[in-house]
Structures
1.
Amino acid sequence: MAGKVVTRFAPSPTGFMHVGSVRTALYAWLWAKKNNGTFILRIEDTDKDREVEGSAEHISESLRWLGLTPDQGPIFQSKRLDVYKKYADGLREAGHAYPDGEALRFKIPVKKRYHWHDQVYGDLTAGEEALEDFIILKSDGYPTYNFAHIVDDIEMGVTHVMRGEEFISSTPKYLSLYEALGTTPPFFVTLPLILGPSGQKKLSKRDGAKDLLDYRDEGYLPDAFINFLALLGWNPGTEQEIFSREELKQAFDISRIQKSGAQISQEKLDWINKEHMKKLPSGEVRDNILIRLPPELQNEKLIPIIFERISKWGDTAGMLGAGELDFFLRRPEVDKKKLAYKNTPSERIEKNLKLAAEALKNISENNFTRDSVKNALDLISANLETRGELLHPVRYALTGRSSSPDPFIISEVLGKNETIARLESAI
RNA sequence: GGCCUCAUCGUCUAACGGUCAGGACACAAGCUUCUCAAGCUUGGAAUCGGAGUUCGAUUCUCCGUGAGGUCACCA
């Protein structure tokens, strides 16, 4: 197509952003970036009754988190009342609008059936039933959405209008307005709905849609979140699923946007997030985990143990909350029955624990590492029927848990003295 | 209800009218392990139904069915 691509994201400031609206923003941003175009943020604040204080800032912050930086904006419609007035006057003078009380109503020139082309849905049609003379300026002087968004899209040179499927049926209104204004409509890029987790309904706040910033606070990576969102209603046509931001810009294409609604899946999001986490430099992993650990657990050695078990930073708190790391903080309570491995008699368990303690005492304090502990214990278990009858009681004595990371690394973290003390306490 | 849109594994999805209907998440089993996690391997799992067009329909057409959207001085 000729000319520069201009897209916009035009939310109304009526609350927080959820996944559905962000996906629209993402696609508009991707398309603009892919084409070296312009991405505009426009706040459609023309309903002062429904407006929620702070939500415009909240929207900007959400976009900032995801790195969907607008090239222009935020532009507030409430500050452009003169523009709408000018257009409205023009329509009125041309006989395309007439007063209705304090309000101004658009006069539908011809009630007819409209056929138009959508970049995603193909040829669409909607009938005269959608065409009643509609309000363009409200009695309070503010324009309606129907009018304001079209004026702005014209004024701002928007080339691709991206929005949800719910706007298909009102498109005849827009087309008749474009006609009356003597303007060629932009490309319509209608996006499939995002469905709530419960079932088949459009995602909404009532349906349990989460505030986007909650995802940030749970410790998802912005690039992973974008990756996940992009794949919800679009696919690259290849089997690649993990995309960097740059790769996404390259690969994204309107022609591969899906028509049917997509249900959001936390599992897939977590998986994608983990895949992105694995690519992070170790310093970043370290910082993100340490910052979520209490002072007593500021230990580098815990990082790989935790990293392996989380799919987002916030899961660290989950592990803490579930007590999975308590044994690093204090000596566990040892239940004698749980010390046993399968049917191994308690005398054998006791003997094995003693052997373990003896062996570990022979390791020097500054060589008390995962490897040396493992070697020492391996020598003992080589003479046993199963490694379990040694390793299970050792692990349980150290942690008080029936499942945990391996006892070697735990020993290293606890240190020689504490490790041996716990073994002896269990004996 | 009128009008509009959509329809492939549980979920996200792939397949110029010709594929054993592919991949991923999730799930299950096995391997590895003392357990957990991770990793590797394997497996089950789908074209909504009925006509038609065609040598051949997931794919094109029609009719059903189902689901969703929309019918404001809300966006």
2.
Amino acid sequence: MNASIDTLQKLLFDLAGVMPGDTEPLFAMTNRVSLEAGETFIRLGDVSRKLAFIEKGIIRSYTVKDNGDEATLFIRYEGQFIASHDTIIHRQPSGFIYRALEPVILLQIDYDVLEDVLKDHPEYEPLRNFFLMRMLAESLKMMESFVCKSPEERYRELVAERFDLVNRVPDKYIASMLGITPVSLSRIRKRMFMKGNLSH
Amino acid sequence: MNASIDTLQKLLFDLAGVMPGDTEPLFAMTNRVSLEAGETFIRLGDVSRKLAFIEKGIIRSYTVKDNGDEATLFIRYEGQFIASHDTIIHRQPSGFIYRALEPVILLQIDYDVLEDVLKDHPEYEPLRNFFLMRMLAESLKMMESFVCKSPEERYRELVAERFDLVNRVPDKYIASMLGITPVSLSRIRKRMFMKGNLSH
DNA sequence: ACTGGAAATTATCTTTTGTTAACTAATGCA
DNA sequence: TGCATTAGTTAACAAAAGATAATTTCCAGT
């Protein structure tokens, strides 16, 4: 019936040995939310501490730079968590906009509420750790990529490791996630195609 | 006597209300470690899951790129935590080298041991969360910087926010942390100086 | 204070990216 | 199906970064 809850119950069992029947206190506090394509999940300046598990669809988080261009921080899809780090980590208004690129179904909880639940049910705590570790792993990987690789190498890496994503969202969002302009990405693609060297 | 333990005891009290006298089970498992300047904390390929609080000194984590150049992921100093994310998050051999740039004093614990302690003393759990959140906040900030700003802007930001660091370590390490070459950083500095625009 | 080695700057040249604008291809919607 | 809008490519030029090498500055150890 609810695929997200099944997935997360399994996760909770694998991580902490919590039986699905004992997860009621947690999932009672979650809401199922639908977004249309183009709809906003978190607005610029929002202070709500939303945390969500994506059941279906894609969400992009981005900000608008001084020169008017958009900078994409990340793009997340089904099976991943999404949250505004500004509100959750820093208790600051969100500096980023979170918007659905496709119709989205989310299982959502307020982080303050989650903290209350965790206070009463510390057995769920491994789930928070898992969530934090996953976020950390992802952002460290991206940092490594920025520090170690050129834009072209980062694009090759993205194509190699997340072809589904590259194939599912417009190139201009991919470009802004790589820290370059759409024009520059187009040239990179051309160079790659001319070299014929599409792998590695 | 031991400044690190005092600091962390205060942190644990502020975060979780744990009295300093009740922290013995945790700190009994920590070791005080000294490193000379240039000495290695974690070697390339190490699988040890070391986690440390820096009491004094600077540690740089870096890797060697295909072209032989070094890429610095981060530089941490007193008051910060340091750990190999490869070993702790992924249980993989470390892809980075962690080396002291100055004489260093650490308060060190093995992450596996920490997990055992946390199992028996869940009241310390907020400390792990704090550690993870701090790491996450730092790497997200760096990601934002890479996605939103040019190398010159990133350098200005670094000078503005962490002048102590810029002033304490050789420029070449700063450059590799910004994802550029030392030559390029030198040109950025020259441009900044010529414009006279040393602020913002 | 002297000196050898490392760090930083400068110069030259090549490659890549940014910017702007024109043009073509793709997409969605009536 | 046709049309309007958006996405992607190409072109031309300016600005910045990479690579290499020479030179100067800075530092540490004697």
